[in-house]
Every structure is written in structure tokens, then in C-alpha cells.
Protein 1
Amino acid sequence: MMLHSTLALSLLLIAFTSNLAMAIKKEKRAPQTLSRGWGDEITWVQTYEEGLYQAKKSNKPLMVIHHLEDCQYCQALKKAFAENEEIQEMAQNNFIMLNLMHETTDKNLSPDGQYVPRIMFVDPSLTVRADITGRYSNRLYTYEPQDMIFLIENMKKALRLIQTEL
């Protein structure tokens, strides 16, 4: 009888500690405040300057998403962006990522105006890629939720342009 209860207690203890370990592991990952809902698995830089530095250092393009919290178009784009596995994976592995809720002082990031949402690419040579545009002639750098395939193509283009030009 004693052996039986010791065994039961041991199993209970093992179950408890492994659950505790999983809870601690989950807890340990700090909530990603910089993602602002665009993708918690992505490492986000805090400022444009930090993004430029990281892009140059890592030889990865910088992707800048301009958005506002109370903009319904931004919210819709954010949802589509966050739910797209291919975009999330590319953003996580191949890009320096920045999402901004304010304008930068770099006028090159608003070649056709300061609207949101707006997604632009900057390559590691710190050149703003004004040639990588979305589908809309009135707002060149805007994407809509149904444009994720187009955004993926532009992300691939940003990656291709580095290899061919540097």
C-alpha cells in the first residue's frame, strides 16, 4: 500500500512540475508590445533609426509599416498580415521589422503623402525602395487585406533586389 501511494504521489509531483515548467516557459516570453498585433513571433525594432542600423548590420531589408490604432483600414490590414503564415515567416526570418504609429522625419518614407496604412521597404544600403509599390496609383504604398499575395511578391522583390544590387 505504501509503495502504491508513493508511486501515485511521485506521478502527481511529476505531472505538477512539468505543468509548472510549461507555465513558466509560457510566462517567460515577455508580451511583445512592439508588435501591436502585427505578429508576436516577429522581432520588432522600436525606432526607424534602430531599423536602419539593424538593416545595414544584418544585410536584411527593413520593412516599415505606418499605421494608426483608430484606423479601420489599418486594423483590417493588420489582421490579414498577422494571419498570413508566409508573411509572418518571411517577416520573422528575412526582414528587419518596424511598425510605426507616427511619422518619421525621413521624407523619403512619404514620397506620395503621409497616409495610413503604408508599407515601405528600405534596403541595407539604406535606400528607400520607392520602386516597390502596391496596386493603387492614388496611394502607392497602401495594401488592403485582399492584397496579401501582392505584399508577399513585394517582400520577395525586396529580398531579390538586395542580392542583385549589392
Protein 2
Amino acid sequence: VAGLGNYMLRGTRHNVGMAVLDRLAQQLAVAEGWRVDRQCCADVAMATARGLELVLLKPRRFMNLNGLSVASAAKIYNLRPEDIYLVHDDLDKALGKVAIKLGGSARGHNGVRSCISALYSNEMTRLRVGIGQP
């Protein structure tokens, strides 16, 4: 599960993907388990939910390079694109509304575009979190 965003700009609405991962880590009782993984240039935490092993990932790169971290983690943890969930902001959705999208285009989102490019696939599931228009 990768929370897309700009790591150095925490607290902004475009980093809602990372905020969701922080909350998920709290709910799975692994919030203290974040560690810096230099191989994939990301913060990583391991968790278990309903018998599934999860890799939680917050890239430490700019949004348009998040895919490099996601692809590196996929290689390290032996994950296929269809095993990956991307959590990201969506300007076209009202604030707080969420939707799940299975595969498809990036719809103009630079972080998703970067992931599609780095993984050579658009098969990732996306959790789109509405942030509304400015």
C-alpha cells in the first residue's frame, strides 16, 4: 500500500495519501514501526491485516518520482503491479469522498503516472481520496 505525495510538504492536501497511511499504521498498531528504507527511498512499515502481510510505503521523493520508490519496493518485496494499492489525492472528488479504481489511466495525476511508468503497468488498484478544487 503506497501513499503518494510530496514527502517534504507534509500537511498539505496533496499529501493525503501519506496521511491515510499514517492513520492505517495507527489502526494496525504499527505506527512506531516506520523505518527508512534507503533501497527504495521510502519510509516502510510492515503490518498484518486479516491474515495478509502488508508493506506500507511512503516515498521520500517528489510526487512525479513516487513511482521509482514504488517500483523498487515491488522488486524488493516480490510484488506484481496487481498486488499494489496506490492511495492518492483526487481534485475531482469532493473533500473526504473516496473511490476505488481498478487499473486504467493516471487521469492527470503525476504520482500515478510515475507509478505506471516505473512499473510498466497500469494494473494497480487506486484509492482516490477527494480533496476538492482549490
Protein 3
Amino acid sequence: CFNSGSSCEKCDFETDLCKALRELNLQPGWIRRNGRSGMGPPYSDHNANDSAYFLSLSSKMRSSSATLRTNVFLPNDEEHVCQITFHYWISQMSGTLMVGLQKHSEDTITNIWQVSGELQNQWKANTITINSTEKYEV
């Protein structure tokens, strides 16, 4: 759910990429699949629905990285903070999942959250809060 103030946009992968992610920006390595795909765990989404779609890293990508970028978000003001809640599943000890923030005046991506080194094999949820006075991508 991408929340800015009272409006909340739910983001799923049932028909394609969701609106918040850049279209055609699915980098090599990301696969849109569901639990019935025969590709191993997870066998359902975070609601235990085996036909619901999610994004997964291909097994060919075990030793490299792949990025997902959002569309451009507009600046926040004092009343509106952006909150992004996402569900994730880590099935490799060596994997690291990172969330970065790139403000439009900066070339660099600032790491704002990460998790690694835990073999969890279960869905977890995390919410990040972003406050930016300029346009940005996540």
C-alpha cells in the first residue's frame, strides 16, 4: 500500500506490475509468479493464496542483484508523509533485501532499510516512512 495522506494505493501483481513500479522496468532476474508455478517456495502469497501473484527472483540470479524502481513520487509536506508497507520472503541465507531512496537532486541512492542473513521462509511485513521535500524514487 502506497499511502500519502488519506489516499492509499494498493499494489499487487495480479494483472501486471502495479502502478507504483515503473512499467517495463522489471530488470532481468525478476519473475511475476504465484505459488502454483512449480518453482519452489513460497507456495502462496502473504494471505496464503496460492493463485495470487508476487515478484520473485529467478534461481539463475542467486549470485547477483536485481533492482525494482518506483515511479517518481511527489514531495511530502508537513501533513502528508509517505508510508510504504511491503511484504517480503527471504529463502536464502546469503540474500540481502535493501530499500533505497533517491532524491532527484542527488545522484546517489541512500539505503534506508535492509534485512539479510536470516533464513526465514515465511512472509514478513515492513513499513517504511519517507519524508522528502523534493521528488524521489524508491
Protein 4
Amino acid sequence: LISSATKSLRMEAEILEKKLQDAQMKLAEKDGDKEKEIQSLKRLISELEFQLTMEKSNNESFLDKLRKEIKHKTDELEKLTQEKTQLIHSLSQVQEENSLLQDTVRRECEERFELTAALGRAREQVLELRRLSGTLP
């Protein structure tokens, strides 16, 4: 009875040991698969970090170019605004000068008209005097 029970327990122990070995092998396989997956994920993370670094670098470079372009355009706009202001000032001066010249021309035309009228009267008076002096001895 004891021998049979011992034999039965040994067989059961062997079966359990075999199951234990199978479970350990499966666990080792799963651990190996997990390790492979971890390594794969680490490589993927490294690649993604590199891509992210490259994108950041590209974005910073692009932003620097945009900042320089904005600075250039701002400077250009400021220069054009100054030129516009100068042109408006020059236009104002030219318009003032034009107005002054038109006023001068108008006055000179009025004076000429008055002088022409006075000259016409003086001629008439000279002709009248000549006519009168021709009748007088």
C-alpha cells in the first residue's frame, strides 16, 4: 500500500514537474517575446525621437526664416512709409508753390490788363493831342 502510494505520488510529482517545466518554458518564451517587443519598441521610440528632433530643427529653421522675412518686410514697409510721407510733404510744397505761382500769374495778368488799358488811353490822348495840335497854329 505504501509502495503503491509512493509510486503514485512519484508519478504525480513527475507529472507536476513536467507541467512545471512546460510552464517555465512557456514563460521563458513569453519573456523572450516580450524582450523582443521591448527592443522593437525602444528602436521605434528612438526613431520617433530622432524624427521629432529633426522636425523641431526644421520648424525652428523655418521660423527663423519667417522672422527674418517679417523683419525685412517690416523694414521695407517702414522705408516705403517714410518715402510716402516725404512724397506727401513734397506734393504739399509743390501744390503751395503752384498756388503761389498761379496767384502771381493772375496778378501779373491783371496788371498787364490794366497797363494795356492805360496804354490804350494814353494813345488815345496822344492822338487827341496830335489832332488838336494839328488844328492849332
